């Protein structure tokens, strides 16, 4: 069963009872009299991602502990409503020590081969999205096939230059920059959700999200998540393209846009020739990566855009 993504954007008190997330909403005043508190519950085992996006939300320590025990990715947002923090479980797999060791001992040639697969798949997915919006992408397909071990020729950057130049309508004059003009804000929000989903799955597969196969920034606690999410980024881009087509230049993050982006973990993708929710596909990807580190498999399973 696909796990749920829960978003809280209004004042609330979140606590736990009987393995349930208990949501207590503030009382309202009617004719000077308080209405009864509204209380809702959700089974914690059904939750995959929980996002807290209001300065007046209170959450109990007991609930935080239970969320992490159930490997829920817990995201907090700042006063600009941008995701700013991520909490994950420290003990995600029964064979975690052995899997850590296999990951730590992975050789440089293995990491280069895994990065080659990752970049090639990312470029192919970018090409698929461009073709879906009727932009020629034969050059992207060629670059994907030409990626060598470790991507020493930096085909990822060459493909990215063409991709970002053509993915959005000309009137946006788009440049990919985290601090840039919209729809960079939508991409950032969608990537933050994707990153949380990937990091959660990495932990569930018994690996360290910090030790990447390519990304090595000493200040980044999620290098491996940033590696593995690369071929999934075009699925976020696809959602943002649809939002742009519906809204034109009016791209400040609205509740309806946020709702579309929050549905990313549940969107359908094709992986191993089967349709699967993105969150389930990520689990297959990280499980296959763990097997690659252990030497029982040579290829990472990644999704594809038709």
In short:
By secondary structure, the chain is α/β, with parallel strands linked by helices. Helices cover 43% and strands 18% of the residues.
Detailed description of the structure:
The chain is of the alpha/beta class. 43% of the residues lie in helices and 18% in strands. Strands 1-7-9-10 form a 4-stranded mixed sheet, with helices on both faces. α6 runs parallel beside α9 and α6 crosses α10. The protein is globular. It starts with a strand and ends with a strand.
| Proportion of beta-strand residues | 15-25%
Rg, Cα atoms, Å: 20 Å
Mean pLDDT: 92
Large-scale geometry: globular
Strand order of the largest sheet: 1-7-9-10
Secondary-structure element order, N to C = EEEEEEEEHEEHHHHHHHHEEHE
Structural class: alpha/beta
The stretches of 5 or more residues where confidence is low (pLDDT under 50) are none
Quote the distance from N terminus to C terminus: 24 Å
The biggest sheet amounts to: 4 strands, mixed
List the helices and strands and how they pair.
Blueprint: E1 4-8, E2 12-17, E3 20-25, E4 29-30, E5 33-34, E6 38-43, E7 47-52, E8 57-59, H1 61-69, E9 73-77, E10 83-87, H2 96-104, H3 108-132, H4 138-146, H5 155-166, H6 184-204, H7 223-228, H8 233-247, H9 255-262, E11 268-271, E12 274-277, H10 278-294, E13 303-304
Helix pairs in contact: 3-4, 3-5, 3-8, 4-5, 6-8, 6-9, 6-10
